[in-house]
Design a protein that fits this description.
The complex is a heterodimer. By secondary structure, chain A is mainly α. Chain A has helices at 3-26, 37-50, 55-63, 65-87, 103-125, 134-151, 154-160, 163-186, 210-243. Chain A has one domain (34-243). The mean pLDDT of chain B is 89. The chains are: A mainly alpha, B mainly alpha.
Chain lengths: 244, 77
């Protein structure tokens, strides 16, 4: 295919796609002009029913909690898949070598790690109140520990993330979500139905089972990202050893 | 649409184009982090702070971090 033909083809399809896209965007409601039933209903009942001031969280962990269970296990399954594929065939001698990091970098990293840890815990704990929650906070928490490797050394990083503990946390988080759902059934309602007590709106303990599911998600996401990060680093060092 | 929203969309479009035209791997990774940051601005401007936070931690931090570490380890090895 010549360059001219390719450009011509791109021109035609580009113009066509742009036209369709603009047509679609022009048909959207104006920003803030929202009249769909589902969202309007939730906006009106979520705070009074579930006592969580962040409606998004009550949708994710309560009204559509079953969807989130599926998402939780998508992450779990993919992480387990990575661990199964990479752990078995690895030579234990191959460990990422420690790089020399200057003292100022290490010091800044230490401060950054502490700050990230606090921010992560804050984002997780305030999920039912303000934007954030187990997923976002979990990634921040994993980041706080990853910084130990980036600004420090691999040995300290591994001391913080012993494999059995990370594996356990990964299973505990994913399984905990499912178990909270079973607790709802034991209490006589539908699977994952919020069983309360709902607490005072605007406090950390509000929302019934929402904070529990939020915490389970935080544990699972933190462990998942740490597990991936560790497997990734170890795998790379093996590849390096083989090519060397 | 208010000017702020139009500006946020233009910003995303600009960096998306820049991403498509970048070939160097390291630049691409860092630019993808910046692009994710413009998406964060877009989500905040359109009042979706929860989505903005997710995009921030995954798009602007976690994803580029993994890629950068991979590149560094490949090069130092």
């Amino acid at each position: 295919m010549t360059r001219q033909l390719r450009l011509g083809l791109f021109g035609v399809s580009g113009v066509g796609l742009s036209a369709l896209l603009l047509w679609a965007v022009a048909g959207l409601h104006a920003f803030g002009d929202y009249h769909e039933r589902y969202g309007t209903l939730l906006k009106n009942v979520a705070v009074s029913e579930r006592h969580t001031t962040n409606v998004v969280t009550s949708v994710v962990f309560d009204y559509r909690g079953f969807d989130t269970l599926g998402e939780e296990f998508i992450l779990f399954a993919s992480v387990v898949g990575v661990a199964l594929l990479t752990r078995d065939a690895r030579d234990e001698r191959a460990r990422p070598r420690d790089r020399l990091v200057s003292d100022p970098v290490g010091l800044i990293g230490l401060g950054l790690s502490g700050a990230l840890l606090v921010i992560g815990l804050y984002v997780v704990a305030h999920g039912p109140l303000t934007p954030g929650g187990g997923f976002q906070g979990g990634v921040v928490l994993a980041g706080a520990i990853a910084v130990v490797y980036l600004a420090g050394d691999y040995r300290s990083y591994r001391a913080l993330t012993p494999q059995p503990a990370v594996d356990f946390a990964e299973g505990f988080g994913a399984g905990g979500f499912a178990v909270v759902g079973i607790a709802s059934m034991l209490l006589g309602s539908a699977y994952l139905h919020n069983f309360g007590p709902f607490g005072t709106p605007g406090t950390l303990a509000s929302g019934g089972s929402i904070p529990m599911l939020n915490l389970a998600t935080a544990i699972e996401v933190t462990a998942a990202f740490l597990l991936l990060f560790t497997e990734f680093l170890e795998e790379l060092s093996v590849t390096r050893l083989e090519t060397a | 649409m208010i000017p702020l929203q139009a500006m946020a969309i233009a910003l995303v479009a600009f960096f998306a184009l820049a991403l498509a035209l970048t070939h160097d791997l390291v630049r691409l990774t860092l630019l993808s982090s910046v692009y994710a940051l413009t998406l964060v601005v877009l989500f905040v401007v359109f009042q979706a702070p929860d989505v903005a936070l997710s995009e921030l931690v995954v798009g602007a931090v976690a994803f580029p971090l993994v890629i950068v570490v991979a590149i560094v380890m490949q090069r130092s090895g």
